Protein 1
Amino acid sequence: MNIKGKTIFFENPPVITGSAGVCGKKEGEGPLAQDFDAIFEDTTMGQQSYELAESAMLHDAIIRAITNAQISPANVDFILSGDLLDQCMGSAFAIKDLEIPSIGLYGACSTMALSLCVGSMLIDGGANCVVAGTSSHFCSSERQFRFPLEYGGQRPPSAQWTVTGAGSAVLSAMGDGIKIKAVSIGTICDLGITDANNMGAAMAPAAEKTIYEFLQDTNTKPSDYDLILTGDLGFTGSQLLYELMETEHGIDLRNQHNDCGLMIYNLEEQDVNSGGSGCGCAGSVLCSHILKRMRKNKLKKVLFTATGALMSPTSSKQGNSIPGIAHAVLLEV
Amino acid sequence: MNIKGKTIFFENPPVITGSAGVCGKKEGEGPLAQDFDAIFEDTTMGQQSYELAESAMLHDAIIRAITNAQISPANVDFILSGDLLDQCMGSAFAIKDLEIPSIGLYGACSTMALSLCVGSMLIDGGANCVVAGTSSHFCSSERQFRFPLEYGGQRPPSAQWTVTGAGSAVLSAMGDGIKIKAVSIGTICDLGITDANNMGAAMAPAAEKTIYEFLQDTNTKPSDYDLILTGDLGFTGSQLLYELMETEHGIDLRNQHNDCGLMIYNLEEQDVNSGGSGCGCAGSVLCSHILKRMRKNKLKKVLFTATGALMSPTSSKQGNSIPGIAHAVLLEV
């Protein structure tokens, strides 16, 4: 790899040879229904807990991605995965029986981008094949970060709806397909947001920083991309991103930008306030809808920038701020 | 990198150009006191919570390691860090103001080895300088995973004492020092242990698997190493590791093996039952005592294998098993 500024360029870009995005019932009723690789009407997945249901969904996405890439788990050098649950329990139980060397990641909702970034660097460094993946589940997240489901707490307009879903992609050193030309690992931004119901505001400054630095490092402008895709800023966070990019850098993102959290639900009809969130939001949308559109040549150059709010139930209760982070992945057909 | 079996060999081995291990009062009363880079008598670190105290300790270790390597944070391509707290809060707050691209890792108590493994692969792949680090704190861990401190719960003989400490190492593509010749990313092992007070038993099979595969891949035997060092198996886990290696593979590890959890405390006098545990155990012992002994040529070839118990408070309460993982790092003078 060659590092210029914060951007890592690859001489032998990794190829996405397989991918899958799966989701739950509510996501399957949204605008992207046709592109998901599986929609699970029963979001318990037949498991005894929502946490194990999330693991089962991630396991399903990983197996589909591996199958899609026409390989077996024995061909995989490393699996890179993480999720929102305490101690990344979702990933641990999803991958524990796969017998693949496992690199646990934590990047909150940025994990799909983080796993693709680190995976790409490992491929560029000499690995043959890695699997990246992540997941989230409305029921496991909600009770961990906010309230018991039965409580039915009111949600402010800036609140987001945690996506029940998972995404996984297989990266290979050889093969045909969408290439990862460059990546950028983000630095943490903390502007002092403490409202766990306004994660868009906590993450927007990180998205601004990573996207702006990527444009600088690559000497490009938004119109050079078919799509600049954030992970789950939602409506509130996306508006803040536009304002920050415009006032700080004089850059208008509106024509090229979209957000997985805005795409996965019909915001007005599905009662999700500011949109979707969770690792599984960017994971399932990227690994199904976006990569499928790229394979059909409907999108040729996509800058995928997933953001994460680095909060924990403990840090929120202690009144700490919510640091944000954003990692970027340049995808090209 | 060249991958043979599960082992990753480096053509241009990364060099450890700086390191620091810091700890709390109790660890500073143990046998390794002279080698720690700092011993904090006040383990609150002047912070308002034990969680932020852990972050402050990790921040201190990172700054010491960077200073020790005679670089500044601006020279660092990536920082790789994780810890035991929910959503890796310890790391997020430790590194959030450093302005270094941040890769969040989750490997439970294996994190020091995981961060060295991934960091080494990134250096071998073209990065110039990375920082690896991890931490744990008795008070933040105890109340998260077990009981409120004030409760004073009884601890069985197999229970371990979470180390209050942090470790950090700077890896560089150039320079003089201890080299990382090879690493191995572990696969998850789950033999069905459900007792959160017997993590040694949950982790020993993972250590056995990773160490045995490393010996096979490198065509070496225990006597080829000055030290085979596990992270925090403690007394119970170390005995199980010996038994497993002997009965499964006919290999006697006793002469070369030691465990950071056995080294950091005087087990009989310090009332720590089976020994030390926590990410900060392996982190602080490796980055101070072990690396200092290697720099003095008292140890020349060390196989560092930190283990992690992939449990969460939620998964334990739900009665799930505790999957284990172990990552290995071959250090040579």
Protein 2
Amino acid sequence: MIVALKANVSKERKHQLIEWLESMGLTVHVSEGMYQTVLGLVGDTNKVDMDLVASLDIVDTVKRVSEPFKCCNRKFHPEDTVVEIGDVKIGSGHFCMIAGPCSVESEEQIVGIAKAVKASGANMLRGGAFKPRTSPYDFQGLKATGLELLKIARRETGLPIVTEIMSVTDLPLFDDVDVLQVGARNMQNFDLLQELGRLHKPILLKRGLANTLKELLMSAEYIMANGNEQIILCERGIRTFDDYTRNTLDLAAVPMLHELTHLPVIVDPSHATGIARLVPPMALAAAAGGADGLIIEVHNDPLHALCDGAQSLRPEEYDVLAGRIRAVREAVR
Amino acid sequence: MIVALKANVSKERKHQLIEWLESMGLTVHVSEGMYQTVLGLVGDTNKVDMDLVASLDIVDTVKRVSEPFKCCNRKFHPEDTVVEIGDVKIGSGHFCMIAGPCSVESEEQIVGIAKAVKASGANMLRGGAFKPRTSPYDFQGLKATGLELLKIARRETGLPIVTEIMSVTDLPLFDDVDVLQVGARNMQNFDLLQELGRLHKPILLKRGLANTLKELLMSAEYIMANGNEQIILCERGIRTFDDYTRNTLDLAAVPMLHELTHLPVIVDPSHATGIARLVPPMALAAAAGGADGLIIEVHNDPLHALCDGAQSLRPEEYDVLAGRIRAVREAVR
Amino acid sequence: MIVALKANVSKERKHQLIEWLESMGLTVHVSEGMYQTVLGLVGDTNKVDMDLVASLDIVDTVKRVSEPFKCCNRKFHPEDTVVEIGDVKIGSGHFCMIAGPCSVESEEQIVGIAKAVKASGANMLRGGAFKPRTSPYDFQGLKATGLELLKIARRETGLPIVTEIMSVTDLPLFDDVDVLQVGARNMQNFDLLQELGRLHKPILLKRGLANTLKELLMSAEYIMANGNEQIILCERGIRTFDDYTRNTLDLAAVPMLHELTHLPVIVDPSHATGIARLVPPMALAAAAGGADGLIIEVHNDPLHALCDGAQSLRPEEYDVLAGRIRAVREAVR
Amino acid sequence: MIVALKANVSKERKHQLIEWLESMGLTVHVSEGMYQTVLGLVGDTNKVDMDLVASLDIVDTVKRVSEPFKCCNRKFHPEDTVVEIGDVKIGSGHFCMIAGPCSVESEEQIVGIAKAVKASGANMLRGGAFKPRTSPYDFQGLKATGLELLKIARRETGLPIVTEIMSVTDLPLFDDVDVLQVGARNMQNFDLLQELGRLHKPILLKRGLANTLKELLMSAEYIMANGNEQIILCERGIRTFDDYTRNTLDLAAVPMLHELTHLPVIVDPSHATGIARLVPPMALAAAAGGADGLIIEVHNDPLHALCDGAQSLRPEEYDVLAGRIRAVREAVR
């Protein structure tokens, strides 16, 4: 951490600050410039409240030089993490195609879609059983029944299943789920993250609507610090002033996250745009831009979907898209 | 709900859409304009996926004309709600002054601050026992011990206590807390909201970092739909491109919320700005702008505060501010 | 335009409103629903101040159903516009590769880069002569001299030149420039736009930092309404809370703009990210996502570039990228 | 400027970087920490492209420690600037009340409003003659005629006049205007700013929709660096995800700007909210929060206003508000 003091600070006040910093176990390197004194702090600077130091009247600026994330930091773990779910691998060149409906609605629906997307090349099945809805009056998902239907679809197709968990209290129901998804609204539900850190199964962690990449990585850190290192990050659009799409897909987050962390990064073009006809171009863009996979909503009857039909592709649209994604991946290899 | 169709839509497709809408129990009023057909939908339109309808290729625009929030809607409940905690009232002209440290650190600290802020005119005590922190390596609060220390401070001063709950599993510990706070990161933790709806005590609901007023009201609705109508809303800054303050205090939300809902609305200038010296001007602005109360961080030793010291006032600063707030309230009455 | 009135509005006040609307030359279709009266307005609704109507106390909501842009609207001009600059075509399957330095610095520099990017497949040369800089103390460009150097580079390579114009008063100097660029900060400099509408040469119109797609199209409309229909739109990143990249590239704007308008849309990954190593993945993503071209900064000596070196590729990096872009374009055709 | 290098950088590369920095006329202080080398740069660091240095692979972070604004910086000019227009003073405790219609429409209108707002205590008259409109099809103002009508209103009331200038070419028409306003869309129209810097009359500089405080100050710097030091800054709302008000009023910008600069800062609650009934609470909030003045839209017939009627107060509403503003200013003195 680097602390630059204001010009003309008295020796005494400088000394007080240095003493206080040293009292917190830090070593302080003082560099007296012509106009300004700069302190370099070495030690466990996580203990220091950077905002507090910055707010002192003798301090000009404070800058952390080391990121506070450790487990997920590529600096300390240069090789890509490859998350494995049965035969499916994600990361380091392994590309995953996750597809399925927003909500599980019936056995016929989920098994039908699972078979269709598998035939198109998907290697994992998504489907919501517990649904976070802005309104308490909206459909909240089939819950436990939905999880059972997902398992039936898995049995029929062999596709591992991904589904969202919203609460620690539901954990026992997710025992036999392959990948647990943390939704955007729960990205900073720290109690949930800590519990998931104690599991031995992959977590799909979605970026929150208004969270920075650093905050996303700190949330991954909550899981990893508890022992679970199988994390897939997911960019799914951020909230901006823009009003034509539901969210703004921040695709540059993909190569930036690849620099910062060794974890795989996938993209959800369905939630990012909220509009089915924008999903194919954004899916192709994500594949070209280096994503490690795509999670796409597919529904066999979007007109009657119980939620989020507007952003779902029909199976035949997904089939065409899957072929084009393979072509793009071939082209950028 | 109003659905405007595109120009030149065939009669057949119009008919199909109307039939489908009617199959969902809605009455459809058709208005044929010179250039455009407009459908007026009457009935329980919450069942209809507005985004799906909007995404149909024959549809131009869709517009909900009734807000989806009911319990908290001023239209159906024109009188201000007054939340009562013992002798303290909030709303409809009753102004609350909540003050205290970011985190409870020790008995001496919390009792000392409680006495000081009471002397300055505060009528409720805040203090964090369970702390949501971006980093798993940061101080997470004294938890159960912190709650006990708050109760000691209450006993010593008579001030009701407000403190944040982060997880349903912690609920039993909060039995004897006066007001439960839902933090910004948990504004859409729907399981938590539903549980709080089953309690018989006031909830202080903070607006999420990137949530609209409608989303804030829908979260209040989650609590109210479960039977608990004692809710205090809190504006605490939103995330924008702006980089001088931690968040951007959206003060116009106060009069706008007063229009939309009968619930009281308070302001948290400490978290909104993140900088102690901006707290007084923003607290005065909130009082002048019609807020029903203020929640302000006060610490007797900001330099050593375990978290968020940068935004805390010292007791003597709070004392001066409290007097100025009273003067402003007098002026705008 | 559709105006939904509040419930329980008196007949008299309804009548007053309808009369006022009719006094502005509009035909008003009244649709009395069970709970709500809806007015459909037909005629030249651009004369009506939608915000004023919305603010009336008897009005619930107002919704424009027709976009206010006409010349650039795909509804009235379904075929793609192809902008032609000599042999170079942009739009409707014609892809342009614009490359060059942020600023023109010397004859050697601009000619050298022009030859290099031409060899890599670029078909237009960019280079700033008039530079909009946040600080008055930063390098402002070589101005008229810079334009002369660009023309020398054009003579040496045959590449048409694109360069930014910042002020109406500089117009005479741009007589012999092939494409005039309007930068993000000037997207709503309406006087400049109107003057450019009187020219007979293509305009490259960049989206403003915080402008919606509708506003971008309205700015194109300012140019087109004055007679110049040769416009190339450019997505170059928007301002969000995100702090890892300079701006957030809003790639979904490309397919969305293609829906709304017949004008070609290109992408500037250099300014969008501000970081050279993110330019290749975002350029590939843009090509896969349907952009009609790319404008990329290339500098032969980024370390000494007078401005924006951080986002420039070296010629050899551009050469590799250009080949990959061709491969992606081939894959998505 | 402080440059922190990455760990494990070779001596040779460190040496190259230091040499390059020194070649730009800087003195480099090297501080070797245990884990990290930190360079302190002294000299005219404005010449150095911070983004370029930050992008070098051996560099971890770069931090400017001195703000790039000089003329408007409070550090170099601790006393408040007081802008004087005839008898009217703004800044350092002098509060200005600017009021008037969005657009000048007729002599009767502007004279009538001028008399009314003067009677309520306003000490300056605003009114748009040149109107920046998003759409080329909207009313663009009475232009030169509007300026003449403003002067008539000034003659009748003695109120100095404030009106927006959009283009350098219109400057001769503004010779007899008291205060020239630069609108939000032109905040970074650098050519215009430079020309205004050569005038000897006050400039009202509005913050752009998505501009940081630093950018606002750099734009003031463009004017001041050319010799004109009479600048009034104006906060008028920023663009955020929020959709209930037109913009989000960033009131904390007022005390923050007072810290950074000696220039007076006023607030425009009319454009910030876009809704007349939110203007009074936000005007009171601004007065309580330390603004040096308010610019408020007043119209005697908001229903027929040619633009922005939705945000205008009627004269009788302004009269009530003006009294309450005086009371709040008294309370916070």
